[in-house]
Amino acid sequence: MTSARCLSTFDKHREIFEQLGIDKTNNKGVFDGEWKGSGSIMPSINPVNNEVMAEVVTGSTDDLNTALDRVAEAQKIWREMPVPKRGQVLLAMRDALVKNLYPLGKLVALEMGKILPEGVGEVQEYVDILEYALGLSRTLSGALIPSERPGHVMLETWNPLGTVGVISAFNFPVAVYGWNSALALVTGNGVLWKPAPTTPLTSIAVTRLLERTLRDHQLPPALCSLVTGGTEVGAGLAQDKRVNLLSFTGSTNVGRKVGQVVQGRFGKSILELGGNNAIIVMEDCDLDLAARAILFAAVGTAGQRCTTTRRLIVQESIYDTLIERLVKAYAQVKVGDPLDEGVLCGPLHTKDAVGVYEQALDKVRQQGGEILIGGQVLKDGPLSQGNFVAPTLTKVTPDMDIVKNEAFVPILHTMTFKTLDEAIAINNNVAQGLSSSIFTNNPSTIFKWIGPAGSDCGIINVNIPTNGAEIGGAFGGEKETGGGRESGSDSWKQYCRRGTCTINYSGALPLAQGINFG
Ligand code: NAD
Predict the structure, then answer these.
(1) Are both 362 and 470 inside the same structural domain?
(2) What 3-state DSSP class applies to 373?
(3) Whether residue 115 is found in the same domain as residue 48
C-alpha cells in the first residue's frame, strides 16, 4: 500500500482512529493476551471511495492455535468468579463502550458503510446486551424438579461450556460479537472472535476496550481473544475441538458447511444465516404506518441487514396506492456518504456487492419482472469512486426464481395477493425463515399470523418492520436461516452445559420406575 492511498480517509478522521488505538499501518490483528499477527496484511477499505484506510497484520492458523490455548487458560480463572462479580466486569465493559459510543459508531460507519446513526445504534446494541447480561448475573437460575424417589432432590445446573468461538459477518461488525460475547462471558466462558475479513479495525478497537477492562480487574485479557483473518482462520475454528460452541453469523452457503464440520466433531453451534424477509400489507391496515416501515426496512443499511425486507406482498386492492407512495418516497431517499447528515442510504460494503446488485437486476428483467424505480449503479459525480447503488423497487410474481434467494442489496420485490391464506403461503414459500411482518388492524388476522398456520419464521412481527429487533427477545430464524437463537429470552442457556443432578439424602437406594434390583 502506498501511504498516499490511505492518506485522506485516515488523516481526515485521525482523531477517531487515535482515540480507538488504530494506526495507519502495522495494526496487529491478533490478541491473545498480547497483540501480534503472523498472517497476511489486509487492508481496511472505505466503501465510500474504495481507498485503503489502514492496514492490519491478520492472524494465521498458528496464531489461532496459540490463542485457543490462552483463552482456555483464562477461562479457568473466570469460571471460578461468582456470577454477580462477573456481572460487575460486564458493567465496566459497558461503561467503556458508552465512553466510546460515538467514535466506535463512526468507525463502524467508515469501515462497514452504514449511516452514522446506525453505526452508533449498533454500539448501543452492545451496551444494551451488556446491561441485559448484568441483570442475568443476578438471575441465572436452574430448576428444582420433583423427584419420584423419597429422600431425593433433582436439580439442574448451568455451567460454562469453556470456549465460545464467534465468527461474525461484515454487516454488524460490533453487535453480533456483542450479543454473543456478553452472554458467553456472563455464563462463565472465554471467547475467541474471528470477525469478517473486511471489518478488522472495528474488531481491534472493540477488543482494545475489553482488554483494558479485563486488565483493570486483574483478569487475564486473553479471556476475550481476537484472531482476524479469512476463510482459513474461520475453518480452523470450526474444526477445532477446543471450541466448545461455535456461534456463526453469515451466509447460508458458508453456514451450511460450518454447521456440518462442527456437527461432525459433535461440537455445538449457533447458526445465524441468511434471510429472505417479507412484509404482508393487508387492505385494512394503516397505510401511512406501513409505507414508513417499508422504507426503513428495505432501504436502511442499504439493504445489508439480515432482516432487510426483500419481498413486499400487497393485497391487490391497495397495491397501486401503496406503490405510488413508495415510488415517491424512494425518489426522495438521499444516497451518499454515511457520515453526511440527511443521508439515508450509504454505499454497499464492497465492489463485489455492486456486481450482485447488477446481476439481480438482470435476473429480474430476464424472468419478466419490471423495475419500478431505481435499478442503476450510481457512477456520476462525487459518488463515482464508491459502491453506491440506487434503492430499487421491482414488480414480480411470487413464483419467479429471483424472489427465492437473498441478494444482500437494496432491492425490494413487490407482488400481489387476494386472500390472507395466499399471502401466508407466499411468505412461507422460500427456503429461509428469519423475519416476517404483517400490517393489519384485524385481530383475527394477527392471531392467525402468529399461530400454527401463520408465518414459519423465527421473527413474526405485526405493524412494525422486519428489521430493528430488540435485545430482550430471542433472535434468529428457522429453515435455511439455521435455527439458532441469540440475545434475549433464554438464549443464554445455549452457552451452558446443562447438568441434571439427582442427590440422594435418604441413606436408602430406591430406584426410579420402582425397579427392585435384588
Ligand atoms: P459470509 O458467509 O461471506 O462470511 C461470514 C463469516 O464467515 C466471515 O467472518 C468469513 O470470513 C467467515 N467464513 C468464510 N468461509 C468460512 C469457512 N469455510 N469456515 C468458517 N468461516 C468462514 O457472510 P457475509 O457476507 O460476511 O455476511 C452477509 C450474510 O450474513 C448474509 O447472508 C446475511 O443474511 C447473514 N447475516 C445473518 C444474520 C443473522 O442473524 N441471521 C446477521 C447478520 C448477517
Answers:
(1) yes
(2) strand
(3) yes
For ligand 1, what atom is nearest to the CA of residue 195?
9
Kindly state whether residue 39 falls inside one of the protein's structural domains: yes
| Residues 59 and 130 both lie in one domain | yes
Could you give the CA distance from residue 237 to residue 192 in angstroms, rounded to a whole number?
Answer: 9
Q: Which residues pair with 155 in a beta bridge?
A: 144, 501
Ligand 1 pocket member 235 (CB < 6 A): yes
Secondary element (H or E) of residue 236: helix 231-239
- CATH number at 115 reads 3.40.605.10
Are 411 and 345 contained in the same domain?
yes
Cβ of 481 closer than 6 Å to ligand 1, yes or no, is yes
pTM assigned to the model: 0.97
φ, ψ (nearest 5 deg) of residue 385: -85, -15
d(CA 157, CA 142) in angstroms, rounded, equals 6
Enumerate the β-bridge partners of residue 413: 311, 394
pLDDT by residue for the chain (518 residues), tens only, comes to: 334 444 588 999 999 999 999 999 999 999 999 999 999 999 999 999 999 999 999 999 999 999 999 999 999 999 999 999 999 999 999 999 999 999 999 999 999 999 999 999 999 999 999 999 999 999 999 999 999 999 999 999 999 999 999 999 999 999 999 999 999 999 999 999 999 999 999 999 999 999 999 999 999 999 999 999 999 999 999 999 999 999 999 999 999 999 999 999 999 999 999 999 999 999 999 999 999 999 999 999 999 999 999 999 999 999 999 999 999 999 999 999 999 999 999 999 999 999 999 999 999 999 999 999 999 999 888 899 999 999 999 999 999 999 999 999 999 999 999 999 999 999 999 999 999 999 999 999 999 999 999 999 999 999 999 998 899 999 999 999 999 999 999 999 999 999 999 999 999 998 889 888 87
Shared domain for 262 and 281, answered yes or no, is: no
Task: Out of 111, 118, 166, 171, give the residue to mutate to test ligand 1, the one with the largest number of ligand atoms within 8 Å of its CB.
Answer: 171
Task: Provide the domain limits for residue 250.
Answer: 3-273+483-498
